[in-house]
Design brief:
The protein is α/β, with parallel strands linked by helices. It is built from 14 helices and 27 strands. Helix 12 crosses helix 13. The two termini are about 20 Å apart. The protein binds uridine-diphosphate-N-acetylglucosamine and phosphoenolpyruvate. Phosphoenolpyruvate binds next to helix 12. Belongs to the EPSP synthase family. MurA subfamily.
Length: about 425
Amino acid sequence: MEKIIVRGGKRLSGTVKVEGAKNAVLPVIAASLLASEGKSIIRDVPTLSDVYTIGEVLRHLNAGVEFLDKTIIVDASEDLNVEAPFEYVRKMRASVLVMGSLLARQGRARVALPGGCAIGSRPIDLHLKGFEAMGAKVKVENGFVEASADKLRGAKIYLDFPSVGATQNIMMAAVLAEGSTVIENCAKEPEIVDLANYLNSMGAYVRGAGTGTIRIEGVEKLYGADHTIIPDRIEAGTFMVAAAITGGNVLVQGAVPEHLSSVIAKLEEMNVTVIEEANGLRVIGPNRLKAVDIKTMPHPGFPTDMQSQMMALLVCAEGTSIITETVFENRYMHAEEFRRMNSDIKIEGRSVIINGPSQLQGAEVAATDLRAGAALIIAGLRADGYTRVTELKHLDRGYLDFHLKLRSLGADIERVKDLSDTPSVKSEVIETKS
Ligand SMILES: CC(=O)N[C@H]1[C@@H](OP(=O)(O)OP(=O)(O)OC[C@H]2O[C@@H](n3ccc(=O)[nH]c3=O)[C@H](O)[C@@H]2O)O[C@H](CO)[C@@H](O)[C@@H]1O
Ligand SMILES: C=C(OP(=O)(O)O)C(=O)O
């Protein structure tokens, strides 16, 4: 079993560069299946386990996928297979994002139903309602959801909730449909805008991405295109919190202020200094952090993917803070792990009440999901003694070289393979850059 071991107490300083966004690259790779002619070149790709998983899904669907450092080249010009089996969907729910492209390209898609996960039940009913509105027949059988349509027709689709995945899947289905599609109450996340830009560069007609209404005119055919992925706002936000919790001074290179306005506002309310520089955001942590309330919301509200990292910071803040999670019903599994580190956190329904400041203490804790993994490591940066974080497979879905980046900022941190089952060897340090 691998662990990250952090010894708290170091102030972070220096510069850290963020990768391309995981949540932008996954839908873009799914959309590359729409190009029946020409190859897509996708740049600034973070080489995370999720990205390799979606690469495997595409290969299984008969697309050519080549990884060249941080670039992926996709050739989807051959006829595609239409089935994404459970072995992929189990590893990564975002595999369901191939449905829209397959339905548009091949008239059929069969994808294993994703299960729930540690953050909530995560149904896909809104994706399917969108496909049905466009004339697809949808059935759920034997653990698979199958959608088929001779020809998708444009439709007016109102989403009951601005789901990121449903908006993306419907966009991908609509770009090759006959006529106009309007998606109302759609998601406005920067990753939606990135997908729209990529689709437009393939020859699609998508307007309004980033607002609450997207309009799409279907076209006959799409072509491979060259696209650079936007910087990862959640990775950026994670390093901003890491700088703040240690009272450090860090330039987060590549952070886009407009993508992070709610996170910046909350950090400033907590007395953290955030300065816009030409190539990123400088974050300077205060001596005393102030308690604040946070409510997670769809963009431009406070992102649920930053909730656990902020929890680490609020534990160290003076006063009572309340976090209310409105996006996922069960995204507090990490609260229990924070309690093991001596924090005063009470869960009450969809809210948590944090009484701070607590002096965090090092402990052995488990990452319950990818953001929880990062949050526990961040808490370890401030804790007395050693914090050992396990279940790193979650962290690896979303963060590249996390411990190496933190170490380059001065953290006392290492990643080890625990060999406690092997007589006479306790642990082995892992230093390889992925
Ligand atoms: C790969 C990726 O980009 N993942 C992000 C994406 O996930 P994802 O696209 O899965 O998140 P959604 O926006 O779809 O989900 C938000 C809420 O809507 C509900 N819902 C969603 C679809 C549906 O058909 N029915 C339904 O009820 C979900 O259960 C959840 O409560 O957006 C989330 C919300 O910002 C982020 O936390 C994830 O990091
Ligand atoms: C929840 C997340 O991702 P996913 O939707 O891929 O599980 C995340 O990035 O925090």
